[in-house]
């Protein structure tokens, strides 16, 4: 395999990518040409939505080809195109053979939630101090424990369970992804757990992960959430959390807990306003610019 690396301006990124695909590139990706420098420009988008822009002012396009000859030929053809007039071929580089499975695995270390509560991939030995453990490998659905929003929800569960076990009697994980929060709740004593997601792959992953962890739960699409729960956990993002406000609150029993994550520090006010007709949200935890919001539904 060989990578053809090209630089081009933002206005031409889409056209160059389409041309590379037409030239049989196996994959085409766009990176910030200034990545890892002081001029790096982060781009933030919402999952499921188109990217906010097709690339960066200075974009590096990387196209993967099966052979050196194909990559060279694509480079020659692209350079003849008017839309590449301002572009530059940065090189053709061989892609070294790698053990991709091992490389991927090496990026996932055990994650500490509290000193006694850990997320541990199946290829790792659990740390000696781990009393409670979720065994989870990265899969198709979000939620490996490496993201601060997931960790804050799990930390909330781990802190709440010893003080108020009844808070976990019936739990709803809304936007369950891998099922990690539902499984975490199960590990801390939740007896009746529903885990729902709009993504059918997430539902399948949740069922598998729950089984592997010996946790009993019902996973399904959102309309599986029925009635009132002692705790509703929803780690989604600010915008869907605002839209879902009346629904999520309706699933919390009077006196129960609502726990929301996926919210940035700067979005706290808008979330508090969106939920104000029903509950008063307060910041219960913070990590890396993300906050955990919590409310008690009035009894
Ligand atoms: C950030 S992931 C969280 C996964 C996991 N609960 C965790 O804490 O790591 C958000 C999940 O919410 C799901 N989701 C997004 N919008 C949703 C909606 N309107 N209803 C239900 N699930 C939704 C996504 O498919 C995704 O699996």
UniProtKB/TrEMBL annotation:
Gene Ontology CC: one annotated term: cytosol
Record organism: Comamonas serinivorans
Protein task: Methylates ribosomal protein L11.
Pfam families on file: PrmA
Protein name (database record): Ribosomal protein L11 methyltransferase
InterPro entries, per database record: Ribosomal_L11_MeTrfase_PrmA, Ribosomal_PrmA_MeTrfase, SAM-dependent_MTases_sf
Residues that bind S-adenosyl-L-methionine: 150, 175, 197, 235
Enzyme kind, highest EC tier: transferase
């Amino acid at each position: 395999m060989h990578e053809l690396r090209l630089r081009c301006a933002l206005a031409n990124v889409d056209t160059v990518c389409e041309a590379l695909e037409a030239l049989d590139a196996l994959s085409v990706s766009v990176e910030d040409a200034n990545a890892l420098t002081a001029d790096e420009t982060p781009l933030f988008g919402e999952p499921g939505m188109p990217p906010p822009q097709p690339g960066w002012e200075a974009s590096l396009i990387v196209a993967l080809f099966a052979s050196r000859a194909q990559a060279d030929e694509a480079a020659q053809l692209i350079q003849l195109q008017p839309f590449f007039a301002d572009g530059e071929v940065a090189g053709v580089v061989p892609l070294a053979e790698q053990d991709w499975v091992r490389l991927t695995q090496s990026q996932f270390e055990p994650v500490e939630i509290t000193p006694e509560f850990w997320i541990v991939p199946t290829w790792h030995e659990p740390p000696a101090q781990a009393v409670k453990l979720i065994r989870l490998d990265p899969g198709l659905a979000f939620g490996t424990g490496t993201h601060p929003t997931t960790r804050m929800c799990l930390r909330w569960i781990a802190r709440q369970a010893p003080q108020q076990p009844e808070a976990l009697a019936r739990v709803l994980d809304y936007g369950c992804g891998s099922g990690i929060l539902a499984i975490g709740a199960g590990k801390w004593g939740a007896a009746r757990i529903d885990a729902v997601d709009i993504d059918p792959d997430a539902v399948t992953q949740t069922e598998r992960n729950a089984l592997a962890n010996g946790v009993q739960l019902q996973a399904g699409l959102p309309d599986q959430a029925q009635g009132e729960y002692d705790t509703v956990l929803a780690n989604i993002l600010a915008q869907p959390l605002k839209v879902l406000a009346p629904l999520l609150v309706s699933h919390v029993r009077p006196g129960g807990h609502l726990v929301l994550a996926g919210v940035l520090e700067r979005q706290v006010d808008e979330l508090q306003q969106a939920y104000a007709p029903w509950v008063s949200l307060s910041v219960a935890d913070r990590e890396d610019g993300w906050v955990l919001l919590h409310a008690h539904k009035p009894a």
